[in-house]
Amino acid sequence: MSRQRLRLFSTLFLTFGMVSQTCCQIALADSGTAPVSTTGYVDKTNRFGLSLFQSVASGRQNNTFVSPLSVAMALQMVYEGADGTTRQEMAKVLNLSGLTILQLNQACSKLDKILSAKNQNITLSIADALWSNQNVTFKKNYLAPIQQYFSASLHSANFTDPATMGSINSWCSQATQGKITQIINSLDANAIMVLLNAVYFKGLWTTPFQSANTKPSDFHLDSKNKISVPTMYIDDSSNDFSYGKGTNFEVVRLPYGPNQKMSMYVALPAQGVALSTFIKTLNYDTLNTTITNSYYPNEIILKLPKFKIAFDTDLGKVLSKMGMASAFDQGQANFSNMVDLGQGKNAYLSSVIHETYIDVDESGTVAAAVTAVEMLGSSAMPGGPPPPPIVVNVDHPFVFLIKDEGTGAIVFVGSVANPKGQ
């Protein structure tokens, strides 16, 4: 049996393939189904995102940075073309059980429009594209929902022409404002599709740090080793920052823009709690409750290291271990709702490449991600006398996430083991 491979690339861009479903069949099967709430869809996607982050970070000693939103959107496009066991496994891993294809498409489209709305000092853009091998005919009703709900641009190309790879990388560079310039360095001759999702974010702090206050400070890599890193300092009494405390960690919210539509949350493990242990035991409900119950102290003193991360990984093995192994199995993958390659031929995912970039400094944050497949609302300050200033010194490994406050969607999540490392 000959095999047709599907490669996925992710770096705030999702490139994937083997996603196809008959639009007419979906409409008939899902007609009369009530739309799922954006809140419900976001909760499902966030839970998948934290699990993905934990799986990717497991065993790593270096910095980790992923975009759950990018990966989820890319894989959801692939999910549309799956059937049988492959579809069941993907639904479980992506936390989509209970949602019809139409509900999923409508929720994803609505979230995309909300997140992409213009906001002062905040830019968040999401783009999708699909390159198909000109020699392969995809089911027409597969491409229709990809265009309608994901607004993906479609390109039929010669995969043996080097210019096609150049066009794909050029699209990634443009979608990430030049932060990710190359998502693929080769195109397999057996590839039938490259599906991309790109996310670009730039946010200016509501209360920026002053560059004059940035000084070298010790950052403890572990109990025995430390390094000196440029550390930002702010003594904030503007009530822009909120603070929460969990059982073994504390969290600080740093909002972006005058409307504070998006925020970064820094989750700092308690002294003595190793980063790996904190990540492994991090619970979504506990984290979400700590954030929701955070308050605005009269004053907060924050010391945060500047950091920059450029991260890339193939999520194939991680996703397989999470439970969707059949999608990557040449003989077991079922993407029959996407394409019919003919007798003796089968389509499967060969890789899911995820590449991300983030730069955090005194003015704010720039982040981007691409995934390719070849397939914050706070409580009032506690009663009684004003508490003393809250001091948070981020001087050891920590976890951070960037989320949309209106929907609660986690766009990025990462961990910093070494501010000087990649």
Summarize, please.
The protein is an alpha+beta fold.
> Describe the biggest sheet?
8 strands, mixed
Broad CATH class of the largest domain? Alpha Beta
* Spans where pLDDT lies below 50 across 5 or more residues: 1-32, 376-383
What would the principal axes of the Cα set say about the shape? elongated
Mean pLDDT: 85
CATH architecture of the largest domain: 2-Layer Sandwich
Number of helices: 10
User: Structural class, please?
Assistant: alpha+beta
Helix/strand order, N-terminal first:
EEHHEHHHEHEHEEEEEEHHEEHEEEEE
Oligomer: single chain
Describe what this molecule looks like in 3D.
The chain is α+β, with helices and mostly antiparallel strands. It has two domains: 2-204 and 309-373, Antithrombin, Chain I, domain 2 (2-Layer Sandwich); 211-306 and 376-416, Roll (Alpha-1-antitrypsin, domain 1), CATH 2.30.39.10. Helix content is 27%, strand content 33%. It has helices spanning 23-30, 38-57, 68-79, 84-93, 101-115, 140-150, 162-175, 275-281, 284-292, 316-324, and strands spanning 2-10, 14-15, 64-66, 122-133, 153-157, 191-204, 215-220, 226-236, 242-245, 249-256, 262-269, 300-305, 307-314, 345-360, 364-373, 390-393, 398-404, 410-416. The strands form three sheets. Strands 1, 2, 4, 5, 6, 13, 14 and 15 form an eight-stranded mixed beta sheet that branches. The protein has a six-stranded antiparallel beta sheet with strand order 3-18-17-11-10-9. Strand 7 and strand 8 (226-236) form a beta hairpin. The longest helix has 20 residues, at 38-57. The two termini are 42 Å apart. Mean pLDDT is 85; it is low at 1-32 and 376-383.
